[in-house]
From TrEMBL:
Record's keyword annotation contains Methyltransferase: yes
Chain coiled-coil ranges: none
One Pfam entry name: Methyltransf_25
GO MF terms, alphabetically ordered: methyltransferase activity
GO biological process, any: methylation
Annotated keywords: Methyltransferase, Transferase
Domain Methyltransferase: 40-127
Protein name per Swiss-Prot or TrEMBL: Class I SAM-dependent methyltransferase
Amino acid sequence: MAYNEFAYFYDEFNGEADYDALYKHIQKELAAHGIADGIVADLGCGTGELTLMLTQAGYDMIGIDQSEEMLCVVRDKAEQLGLSGKLLLLQQDLLKLDLYGTIRGAVSTFDTFNHIPDLDTAVANAGFFMEAGGVFLFDMNTPYKHQNVLGENEFTFEEEDASCVWRNHYDAENRRVEITVDIDYRETGEHFHEQFYEYTYDLETIRAALEQHGFVLESVCDGETFGPLTDESERYFFCAVKQYTQLEEQ
């Protein structure tokens, strides 16, 4: 999945996201594992809000996204913040991830891994380039959210320059949500339509994929409150630690 036209309005339509709380939690977890600097990859970096916050904190960030439009937004933000040249941006599919060396950690937020139909390969790729003791911090939407919050619901977002209608359809047989996004520009009258899927993964499936590829799942919490999970948690947040280095063994 790659957001295209939606990239330029992603921040507006995602305005309720608490990036500060997310950043604080991620930085706390990195520090707790002795990672205060070094190379960290943002897998599915989107418009780069978190990527740039971590860059400003002193990490050597690699922002990776399949959407060139998203990466263009990150470049513009980096230039405005005086961070051009301080981070590496790569246009890659996470199922074909290819980095230049090992990384100390990886982050992936706002349900990037729910958009991937082959979770096992995506986890394997994230782990392949990670140093022993490296930390993988990521979130995913829960089955509860897919079935009960997205489900068959429709959401409308109104901004000054555009409107967006987000429609969902939960396919129980294939365990996925079909999402359609329609954007209308007020000034030009242009209309854009995008369609993609989010795939539903339960906790045990995610744990098994991590363990299969050399991670120990240290903790899982609610990805919005960062407190304990409940039956109505809409987002998981995972902290997994890599047990051995693979890239250097090749």
